[in-house]
Structure formats: structure tokens, C-alpha cells
Amino acid sequence: MTTVFAPGRVNLIGEHTDYTGGLVLPMALELGITFSGRADPERLHVVSDGHDDLDVALPLPDRTSAIAAIEPSWGRYLVAVARRLGVSPGIDGKISSTLPAGGTGLSSSTALTCAALLLLGGTGPPLELAKLARQAEIDATGVQIGLMDQAACLASRRDHALLMDCEAVTVSHVAVPESIEVLVVHSGQSRRLADSAYNDRQAACAAVEERIGPLRRATMADVDRLDDPNLRKRARHVVTENDRVMAMVEALGADDPETAGAILTAGHASLADDYEVSTPIVDRMVAALAATDGVYGARMTGGGFGGSLVALCRPGTEPPVDTWWTRARPGAGARIIEA
Ligand code: ADP
Ligand code: MG
Questions:
Q1: pTM higher than 0.85, yes or no?
Q2: Fewest Cβ atoms closer than 10 Å to its Cβ: which of 17, 20, 85, 237?
Q3: Of ligand 1's atoms, which has the minimum distance to the CA of residue 105?
């Protein structure tokens, strides 16, 4: 029997920057998915609390469409990982999760994919594994995602956020000082419109880049040259957000919680006003959090339209919310717990 653990993640800053080769700063959580199992040549049989049992006879047909035919659909992540690894998906196993169920945007799908990857024997440098996990997740869902979630899940280090350059595809570890506690708070809204808005914002960024070149190297002077006011707002978010990631790295290095918090709150204003991916409920929650004694700053995190918020606060601060929330320290990346 092998047991592995793969964490969920929260993005501290660097939202909607990944698809234009920008900077992101996620951290792994201590919450995640534990997957225990042993090889089974005849079946893929896995149970997971709160989910329908997976029980599929092997071997599967060789076609790509065999993945989309798997029910319950969460089994697709497992089969997709096995295909990418070139191994049989045969497992007799059990999954348990400490991530909250349903639409909180803490990357449970990536935790599941990366747990399966380790359980099925995936080895190699974390970023190479992350690329494989990303491909598997795309195979399983048909949705073109970036590499941030898989990198955060596999390459994170305890007590550190993960600075990722999405253009160079490199990562480095940024210590999060003890003076800062991270709060992750669910908005109570599941991310309904996120996929369509995501496509729309990607198209807007592509239109911007046709006019002023790569957003990663654009300046505010370039942004001001755009005559379409809508594109100008989208571009301004991306350019200022990349700057906020670097400012956050500096603030964490200087053990400066006030500045770090102010960067989060400014990031939220940019997402709400310029990128227009927030909601009135999320805006009210961010304002209430930011006004709470001990909270240095707060913002929405993830693609938007609901999901979760992240706040930086003095350790021990209670958020004024009645939705699910947790305190979080940056956790380590996915690992084998028992071989
Ligand atoms: P998230 O932001 O949490 O990744 P997604 O919609 O991308 O949200 O992924 C959620 C999907 O991941 C679920 O619908 C399910 O298919 C799978 N999943 C997550 N957690 C589990 C679990 N504990 N057991 C089985 N499947 C899970
Ligand atoms: Mg997901």
C-alpha cells in the first residue's frame, strides 16, 4: 500500500497574469488530498468520501475518447495521468480530502491529479512533473489551463510562497515571515461565470498584445497608447499586477506586513475595476476584511466571479464572516507519505 498527499493552493498575488507570461505568487496549503492504494491489474477501483465510487474494468480501449467516457467524471483525472505516464491506471484505493467541497477555487482538481501522479509512480524534477500533470488535467477536462496550480502543488516548499515566471517557466521560493498569517475565506459564491469570462479576458489580452506587443514587457506608457478604453483597463490590470507581484516579494523579504497587505487590497481594486472579474458580494467581503483590526489587506483570489478570498493578517485575527474559512501557513509540495 502506498500513501501520497497533494496540497491545494491559494494564489497570494498575480491574478490573470499567467496566460500573458507574467508573474504569479501562489502557496501550497496544508489542506489537500490523501490517496492510498495498491496496484490492481484488473480494475480501477477507488472510493472517495462524498463522491460516487469509481469502479472501471481494465484494460480500457486505447482511444483518447476513452477518458471522456469514464464515470464518475473524477476518474478521468486518474486515467489521464496514467496515460501521460504510460502506465496502467489499475489502482485499488481510497481518497480523503481536507479541502472544502465544491467551487472554492483551491485547486482540488490539481491536488487529485498530482496525488494520482505520485501514486502511479511519477518521478522527476517538480516542474517536469507539473507539466505532465497539467497535460493530464487538460486531457481530463478539455479546458486549457496554465501551469501555476500544478507547479504550486508539486514544487512548493514549507513556509514559502512560490514565485513563478510564466514566460521563462522558472520558480523560486519566497519565505513568508511568521509575522504574517494567511486567511483563506470562501465567498459563499461558486464560480459560475468564470470559464466564459476567462476566455473573454484572454481574448482581450491577445488584442492588446497585437497593438502594443507582449504585456509582460509593456509599460504604463504603452498602455496609455491604447485608444480602446476597455482594452486599456484590461492591460493596466496586467501591467500593474506584475509589478505588484515583485512588490510583494520585496515586502515579504522586508518583513513588512502593512505593505504586503496594501498590495493585496490594491490588487483587488484592479481586478474589480479594471479587469472586472469580481462580484458585489466579494467586493463587500474584501472591504469588511480590510477594515478588520489585525487584517493588513485582502483580495479575491482565483479566476473571479466568486470562489475564495485571501487576506494577510496579524496571527490570531478572526475574519468577520459566516462562510467557510481557514488560517493557512505555506505548506510543502506533494509527497509520498508511505511507500
Ligand atoms: P478546484 O478549484 O477545486 O480545482 P475544479 O472544478 O477544477 O475546482 O475541480 C473539482 C473537481 O475535482 C471535482 O468536480 C472532482 O471531479 C475532482 N475532485 C476534487 N476533489 C475530489 C475528491 N476528494 N474526490 C474525488 N474527486 C475530487
Ligand atoms: Mg481545478
A1: yes
A2: 85
A3: 2
